[in-house]
Amino acid sequence: MSLFSIVAITVLIVLNALYVAAEFAIVAARRSIMDEKARAGNRVAVQVARVLDDDQLKDRYIAAAQLGITLASLGLGMYGEKVLAHSIETWLGSSDVPAWLASHAIAGLCAVLILTYFHIVLGEMVPKAIALATPERAALWLSPVIRTTQFVAYPLIAGLNGLGNLLLRGLRLSDDNSKHYYTPEELQYVVRESEEQGLLGHEAAEVVDELLEFGTLTAREVMVPRVKIRGVELGSVLSAARETLRAAPHTRYPVFAGDLDHIVGTVHIKDVLRRTRQSRSTITQADIHPVPFIPETSTLDKVLAAMRQWRTQMAIVMDEHGGTAGLLTIEDLFEEIIGDIDETTAAARLPDIFREEDGSLRVVGTVRVDEVGESLEPERELEHEEVDTVSGLVLALLDRPPEVGDAVSFEGLRFEVCAVEGHGVAECRVIPLEPDPTSEGEDAGEGEPHASGAEQGANAERGDERDA
């Protein structure tokens, strides 16, 4: 085989490698890095960034790379196989091998195997690995090669792209470019992968994950329920208002006329203090700030938008009948993302979810059921179709007001009531249950929450004591 043939085959393999690297580099290159290089004055980066921002330019870029790969591969197969097979056949013919082994067919097969090896390894795998390892650098370095190919073969590339789009329309396939963007679920997967690889800290990953779920949560799931609202009645004397402030220290309070179903606005603690200094005796309409009313089904991003529009840090949540279901503050929204930020009480109480040494969880009744599932080890999906909180779950399963010592089972977990407040659960202990092989076909198969026989017996004993 002549020196020219060796150089020609090498050039074809190198060209194939360059086009393969260019294709993978433009797909893997990150816009943020390329935009940063473009702002720094890199003219090639400006061109590559323009390609990344325009899907049509990106399609043409990839089409040029694929055209180069195709032509290089065809040239390598047609020219390289012929030259290499002839050289192998000549070498076999001059050696002491059987005549059938020196045939052109055997030589052609050997040539194909050799070229395939070099084509796959040097022309495909190695350049792909390099491009994926340093996509931005590879895209910058190979951009002139692709631009030259686009200029030389523009009619062919445009024609191939047009035929491809025509075929897609004939198959009724959409070329919608939205598939190039990430859904919230895909972004959560990226965050988890980055955390596992050590590229993102645990706390930062938690914040990003909660932020991505922010728009899926509703006001009903996060609100302070009506039974926990502490408000000030319109026209009430300042002494009564001060008692409310002492019992439940906050910066803002809802103001109601008659009852909590008729909230007329909010009052700031500084307004109450100013009234006291001015020796005025009652809360009047002049002290009230307007407040938005939102339905229970509103997502948190809509709640935040309403607070911005009304320039307030509180919103009243309405039930389906127009009454007051609860309220939300800007602090409640932030806590859904970054955790507890209440400086006045956080140091004096346990967190809403506390892990005991035996692996059980101690949770307050207002914790959402799905948050309990996320706190388990291993983490699991936990939800109920009708209720959102632990207190609501226990009430739904007991079908009566809870008492200390009550226990129910749900999705392989035992919920023991540790404290009650009014007719709801104030604190609950969550204990993972060991799977029972004898009841797996009955209870686990149906997947329904239930109270165990021991729990029912305990409930019956408490009922007998009350009757006595």
Automatic annotation (TrEMBL):
Residues 432-468 are annotated as: Disordered. It is a multi-pass membrane protein. GO terms for molecular function: flavin adenine dinucleotide binding. The keyword Cell membrane applies. Its main location: membrane. Residues 283-343 form the CBS domain. SUPFAM superfamilies: CBS-domain pair (SSF54631), FAD-binding/transporter-associated domain-like (SSF56176). It comes from the Bacteria. Residues 437-446 have a biased composition (Acidic residues). It is found in: Cell membrane. Keywords: CBS domain, Cell membrane, Membrane, Repeat, Transmembrane, Transmembrane helix. This is CBS domain containing protein. It comes from Haliangium ochraceum (strain DSM 14365 / JCM 11303 / SMP-2).
